[in-house]
Amino acid sequence: MAFDYFANPARFLRLANAVLPWCVGATVILLASGLYLGLFVAPADYQQGESVRIMYVHVPAAWMAMFVYTNIAIASVLSLIWRHPLADLAASASAPIGAAFTFLALVTGSLWGKPMWGTWWVWDARLTSVLILFFLYLGHMALTHAFDNPARGAKAAAVLALVGFVNVPIIKFSVDWWNTLHQPASVFRAGGPTIHPDMLWPLIAMALGYTLFYITLLLLRIKSDLIGARLRTLDSLRQDAA
Amino acid sequence: MTGAGGIIARDLKLALRQRSDAVMIVLFFVLTAALFPFGVGPEANQLAAIAPGVIWVTALLAVLLSLERLFLADYEDGSLELMALSPVPLELTVLAKVFAHWLTTGLPLIAAAPLIAILFNMPVSALPILALAMLLGTPTLSLIGAIGAALTLGARRGGVLVPLLVLPLYIPTLIFGVSAVDAALLGFPVRPHLLLLAGILLISLVVSPLAGAAALRQANE
Amino acid sequence: MDAFQTFIDMGSYGSYVWPSYGLTVVIMAWLVMSTLRRLRNREQELARRQGEFPARRNRGGATDTSGPNTSEDAASS
Which domain does C43 fall in, by range? Predict the structure, then answer.
């Protein structure tokens, strides 16, 4: 299988080093063009005016919040069932990035909500489920670092990530249900069914830019974790020698 | 099966010997709920309106308080390793321990809930639904809690970690538990809420033994 | 100057739009910097340790069997 190929960290590092410059370049180009299109080319919304431009940083962040959590769940399966050596590193390196994007989605959502809803926070179904997702990330990160033995932390976090992943749709459903019970009228829906192409392109560019940004950071973090593991091996060698 | 029965019997015997634990949890439940009138004021209608939410949230916190003792004693004295080695599947052991935990926390909480409902001026007609919803909901709290308790065995700051792991996963149970009682109070159909609570219970019945046993195996390594 | 003013104003939503973009930039920059700082620290640490024990490094082939995963890290990073 393809992921077996990268079970050898040296091989992974060679590939990562070869891919990284391209990832950095693509990230910069995509984010720059996304910002340009979003701030200068895209029209203002006829209802929301210029505030719609928050969408270009907010919506991709919310997508990333889900995407990164899905990746952590996949990595957790690889770690628990196939014991892939890089899977734990990928999961623990992804979690802070995912948490940061979730935090961004929450705060920019709040900044968008203030002029639209008139308050910083409403217990809207989407905002609420993203908030819960943020808590899931924090729990995952705390559990990863709660043990003296990093391997134990990684395995425990993998179990938690899978339990959380099973729960995400349940949480989403229950929050939707709870929200319709308490707030019958939906105040505002982002975008709407048809979106103007001039608004779609910046959104796509930003979403791809965020994704490549994540991949770049993920590769760098796995790389530094591998060096960390190497340092620990050297430590134990020195202790053996002494 | 006798193995699982043995574990339940053993855990229950231990729990009954330490009856004070269950009593403390019920006391915590009642006392915490009794704080709310001081927080929001003694106005009867307002208290009745928040009663279902207060009962569920405090029950949830009370369960959280009791989670640490679920596996910790067995982990520290090494019986957990014996359980892992025994012919009884570890998944079944987890279920047995969760059942014993529920009998000593969930059940007392259900018994104490009407007291709070009356203190909060909640109509007596909704009490059966409250009891039924808690009967379907509190086992889920024990099941999910067991995962958190098993995952944090041997962790630094395990006690503070459990709420962070478990509370987000409790939210669906909280939502449907409260909405069932609310529906009963407002005269809406109660069935869908209870069915959803039962559905979550069934999913937890599958997920919790698997995840809990995996976590216990990791803790033993 | 006028066009610039209206751009900053964002149809009176400037005080919501710019903090959103600003925070996004700050958080992403912080992610990049913390990642790079950690990577650089560890690379330097590794270089320093290997400088300390040149002899061990040469005999590394035999001892490294205990940690086969990391045998080639240094060479490729």
Answer: 24-51
Q: Tell me how close the Cα of A136 comes to any Cα of chain B, in angstroms.
A: 7
User: Cβ distance A90 to A75 under 8 Å?
Assistant: yes
Chains A and B touch, contact meaning at least 3 pairs of CB atoms under 8 angstroms apart? yes
Query: Which residues in chain B are closer than 8 Å to A147, comparing Cβ atoms?
Result: 154-156
Give chain C's domain count: 1
Contacts of B164 in chain A (CB under 8 A): 135, 138-139, 142
Is A in contact with C (3 or more beta carbon pairs below 8 Å)? yes
Would A169 be classed as within a structural domain? yes
CB contact under 8 A, A9 and C56: no
What Rg, from alpha-carbon coordinates, does chain B have?
A: 18
Q: pTM surpassing 0.80?
A: yes
Number of structural domains in chain B: 1
Separation between Cα atoms, residue A222 and residue A228, nearest integer Å = 10
Minimum mean pLDDT range among A62-71, A124-133, B105-114: A124-133
Residue C35 lies in a domain: yes
**For residues C65 and C70, what is the distance between their CA atoms, to the nearest angstrom?**
10
Nearest to C63 among A213, A230, A237 (CB): A237
Q: Count of domains in chain A? A: 1
Range(s) of the domain holding residue B107: 2-220
Residue B76 pLDDT:
86
pLDDT at position C1: 58
- 8 A C-beta contact, residue B177 and residue B133: yes
- Give the whole-angstrom CA distance, residue A106 versus residue A109: 5
ipTM of the complex: 0.88
Closest chain B C-alpha to A109 CA, distance in angstroms: 20
Please check whether residue C77 lies inside any domain of the structure.
no
Q: Which chains touch C (3 or more CB pairs under 8 A)?
A: A
